[in-house]
Amino acid sequence: MGLTQAELAARAGVSLDRVVQLSELGVVRANEADGSFRPIDIQRIRVAEAFAESGLAVKDLGRLIAEGHVTFPNLEAVFGEPIAASDTTLREFGDVVGCDPDLLRRVYTQLGLPQPQDDDRLRTDDIEFLHQFLLVFDARDVGLGDDFLLRAARLSGDSIRHFVVAINTLMREELLPALVRSSTGPPQMRGGGPFAVAGPLTGWLVRRHLEALIEGNIVENIEREMEETGIGRRRELHFPAIAFLDLSGFTALTLAEGDEAAAKLAVRLSDLVQEAATARGGRTVKSLGDGVMLHFHEPREAVAAAIELVDAIPRAGLPQARVGISAGPVVFRDGDYFGRVVNIASRMADYARPGEVLVSEAVVDLGASGGSAFEELGVVELKGVREPVRLFRAIPAAPTEEA
Question: Distance between CA 345 and CA 342 in Å, rounded?
């Protein structure tokens, strides 16, 4: 349905004078038959506002449009149905949920979004999300302060922004140029573009990962109850292992072959590591550019995966890998692991030579030798580690001779 100038201004969250100005500049155009505007013009106005907020003159945007240098093709396909501004200001929303506007602004900042002012009307989707977000993470009633809420916002913002930026980069640098080169005609936004897939994909993927984590929490709670009641026996728990793997000479390779080649190598490395780690009960904690940090429930599985990887990675056309593994208690916080064990494993990887898997004494003591043998290297001082560490080199165990 068509929108009047006043309705367009209200839904875009701008003044009527601004709509009149943008209409005169040709950023938005009324239907010649009835003078109405389309809902997608909400998004055109937001693009113009982003242009102005970046310090550029909106009149220059109008001139670029008038002379045919700039168009807004496929906005409907890219953005979908525009989200309108609500009638609720930030201050009014804060009164409803019992949050000071300054705290809400800090939440916006941690989410990676622009800060609204007290009298700015919030988008309807902002209100829906913030209601749910505060319901879960505003835990002041149980004694947790603002820092808990802001940490939750930061983790959410950082994770989603990383995903969105990566998807956008992939499309801009690879998919769109490929569509331009295609012989099938003018490039079209496939399947509605990133907006069509980003929301459903993140919602689905977050749910799948949450289900797995919650199921694990439930099993652990049941095991604890078994232990406390004496009904059944809880499985024997071991200290986990942390492994760091990096590629020798990756920086030099990047300089020689360029960033695009480095990005493809990083994807290939990720595939190999993910396959080897998952098969042995491990998981990637984070990517480090030229390497990865891994967590394994069992030290022996970490060693086996590392030995497999240092052999497979060069055969896949990548530079040689080196690995450091340590085991012991670790601190899990905000999706990452911290502590002395983590620091030692990282420094061991730095110390290792190409093709080596180095392990700490703790890994050997925890019985990680299944399928592997260890050569003692002695006590070594590692950079950034206060006390010397006894290191061992892990190698495949020699096959036993059959009688």
Answer: 5
Phi, psi of 124 (to 5 degrees): -65, -35
The separation between CA 117 and the C-alpha centre of its own chain, rounded to angstroms, equals: 28
Q: Tell me whether residue 235 is exposed, middle or buried, using C-beta atoms within 10 angstroms of its C-beta: 0 to 12, 13 to 18, 19 or more.
A: exposed
Q: Which residues contact 164 (CB under 8 A, 6 or more apart)?
A: 194, 198
CA-based angle 138:140:144, to the nearest 5? 100
Helices 101-111 and 146-170 pack at an angle, to 10 degrees, of 30
Tokens of 256: 């020689």
Which residues partner with 93 through β-bridges? none
Question: 254: left (phi > 0), else alpha (psi -120 to 50), else beta?
Answer: alpha
CB neighbours of 140 closer than 8 A, spacing ≥ 6? Answer: 146, 149
Highest mean pLDDT among 79-88, 95-104, 188-197, 256-265: 95-104
Q: What is the 3-state secondary structure (H, E, C) of 221-261?
A: HHHHHHHHHCCCCCCCCCCCEEEEEEECCHHHHHHHHCHHH
Which residues touch 241 (CB under 8 Å, ≥6 apart)? 295, 296, 298, 299, 301, 302, 303, 325, 326, 327, 363, 368
Kindly indicate the confidence band of residue 403, based on its pLDDT and cuts at 50, 70 and 90: very low
The residues near 296 (Cβ < 8 Å, ≥ 6 apart) are 240, 241, 242, 243, 277, 280, 281, 282, 302, 305
Location of structure tokens 């897939």: 197
The β-bridge relationship of strands 357-360 and 321-327 is parallel
Q: Half-sphere exposure of residue 178, counting CA atoms within 13 Å on the CB side?
A: 8
- Please state the pTM of the whole predicted model: 0.61
As a whole number of angstroms, the distance between CA 253 and CA 378 comes to 32
Tokens coding 366: 């925890």
Distance (Å, whole) CA 80 – CA 370: 55
Question: Taking a C-beta distance cutoff of 8 angstroms, is the pair 64, 27 a contact?
Answer: no
Nearest to 323 by CA among 403, 383, 267, 394: 394
Q: Where is mean pLDDT largest: 58-62, 122-126, 247-251, 260-264?
A: 122-126
